[in-house]
Amino acid sequence: MVDIATRVWTHKWKIDPIVRSLIDTDFYKLLMCQSVFRNRPDTQVQFSLINRTTSVPLADLIDEGELREQLDHVRSLSLSRGESTWLRGNTFYGKRQMFRPDFMEWFENLRLPAYHLERIGDQYELTFEGTWPEVMLWEIPALSILMELRGRALLHSMKKFEIQVLYARAMTKLWEKIEVLQKVDNLRIADFGTRRRHSHLWQDWAVQAMCEGLGEKFVGTSNCLIAKRHDLEAIGTNAHELPMVYAALAEDDAELAQAPYQVLADWHEEHDGNLRIILPDTYGTEGFLAKAPDWLAGWTGIRIDSGDPAGAAEIAIKWWKDRGEDPSQKLVIFSDGLDVEKIAELQAQFQDRVRVSFGWGTLLTNDFRGLTPQDQLAPFSLVCKAVAANGRPTVKLSDNPNKAMGPADQVERYKRVFGVGVQERSEVLV
Amino acid sequence: MVDIATRVWTHKWKIDPIVRSLIDTDFYKLLMCQSVFRNRPDTQVQFSLINRTTSVPLADLIDEGELREQLDHVRSLSLSRGESTWLRGNTFYGKRQMFRPDFMEWFENLRLPAYHLERIGDQYELTFEGTWPEVMLWEIPALSILMELRGRALLHSMKKFEIQVLYARAMTKLWEKIEVLQKVDNLRIADFGTRRRHSHLWQDWAVQAMCEGLGEKFVGTSNCLIAKRHDLEAIGTNAHELPMVYAALAEDDAELAQAPYQVLADWHEEHDGNLRIILPDTYGTEGFLAKAPDWLAGWTGIRIDSGDPAGAAEIAIKWWKDRGEDPSQKLVIFSDGLDVEKIAELQAQFQDRVRVSFGWGTLLTNDFRGLTPQDQLAPFSLVCKAVAANGRPTVKLSDNPNKAMGPADQVERYKRVFGVGVQERSEVLV
Fold it and tell me: Which residues of B touch A160 (CB under 8 A)?
């Protein structure tokens, strides 16, 4: 039997919306948003889309009208009652009422602010301006939309069975990775792939496949909507935008040097347990740890998001030892450019020394490499970053200079203030 | 929206029927049935299921109750009005009213006769007895049911995503074959895979994938129901059961020697054009052609279904030349144990010398080899053959002694009568 109503309804849609919910976003965005809403609500920021893979000509591939329709659709979204109930009533990281009533009330009334879109050559300039708590929520939907529209552009010219076989191949590829991970003892891994996923439906499939294939080894997803739908743990802590904006707001070099610690001091007041995870690489991991206050060594763990992951883990282990902490009680979360071989290798290398966990991103939710003739579905490096705060440019140094950003003079100033010397470059795949 | 009615209806089913239509069968069965209905309608025959792959313990894998339910379901089927209309009104091989009114009237009132099922060790003995036109129609449903139940037995213990990935792998595997065939110039290929298909739905998928992937290179399917559903050509001519039963009915050696030609003389009266295809191997191709009457050399082509296909094609080409025929006008249909490499090879070898066509069977509709851990879904060699006619055993010699059947003394007699010497054995995969 054909469900006539469904069919008619489907054909009534003006567009096939890519982002259909304000919680189709990373959990850490909401945690950070609450923190910003509390501590720096009036900061004026600018976020900007940056395509690091300039060989992908987004403006040639994606129709501007379609892109505007998708972005406009996101602006029409507001939190549904069920989503609000889930955020207010659910337990996150073992804690009830993670989101405070004043934040929830604000969020329930939120619509995302305007965007600015312009074609520059074969790329789009896409920027968002306004108060920090509002603008920051554009990051994930903007990335998801660009990624998925780029995929659709290719899929549009494919025939029915060709498309089905493409997904069959992608499923097979992902399942073979899951089969590798099944053999990794003591694995704890979460989905961190929302921002650069192939599509929402594909991420949803990937998460469900991880659930079935890995059982308890799969500890949750960063995507709130998918976590809600499948009753999974929502996973995530905080990201570079906090130290980047705090740093940009610093009035002098002394305040700048303290900015990354101020972020974590604010965080310390709100969160405990597994949410106390240091992200040390914004202005160089070594300097950050060396100058860190002692109370930070008491935090639960560290997230390693750039540079050589094993090297960074060794630095953290040594730092904990130097500060009189027991590394075997500490959590190390690897989240940069992971695929299964690297995951298995890092797990084997560190599982007897620290508690290990993985946030698996793009190569979980968007590994379509090698599945189309000219590899036009391979993921690429797209980010959406805070580029200015209260009129001042932001800076990121990272442990990998290929991930650095900011005006050259400010980069030099930050390097001096944070004591960052020569850094090793490594390729940014995604 | 959930279609509530569909869901409730689905859950009301007592079983999930494997064969749901009397035309979910090979087209040549119906052509042969009409011929038998006209020429030998009262012949009493016994058909029997033979599992040549004794390492597959069918009675251990398949529940007898489930098997009976499926067989009983087939006995409940009758030709629907639409099916009857299609058979009466459609054009087959360019001819209208291929099926005569008296045959159609008989077929419209047909229910399949009783079966006899017994467990013998780890195998089932499944036999059908009655008049030839009725009993012969059991062959394809019986094979399809056993094949699909054996697959279901394994699928039953698999989890949801595991099953989805299994089919994803099977789709990928088949599509890669189609991609190979896309590069074979002048290819003409049909689906002959009903009898040993993985399942009805899978055969339907395979046929549609061939349509999209190969376009005009894909000339049709032997499955009437699938041909009807997708408006494709129904393909097929005749099979070994005709000479086997005619031979068993022969009163003496002289009549036996003539039996295979009598089959084709009866066929000659009814059919012309591309339906005049010789199947020469029942009692040895060389002897059959050497002693064939001249009018047979005027037939359109030959189907090569056992032995070395290139060798058999060479024999046919030489035979046509000897009889003053132009081989380049003749059709050679390869249909034995084909896979894409062999297809490409035979096409290259013969396309400039004869008209080449392929009937691709088991490795089109059931290539699940290598897709499960112990390969429990690999196809195996199951046949359902006429074993007796009017109380006399049937005999098949074939060009491959591994495909021979019949009592030893009768096999010796047939070898003598048909002048068959030493034959080369080749493995029967499917």
Answer: 212
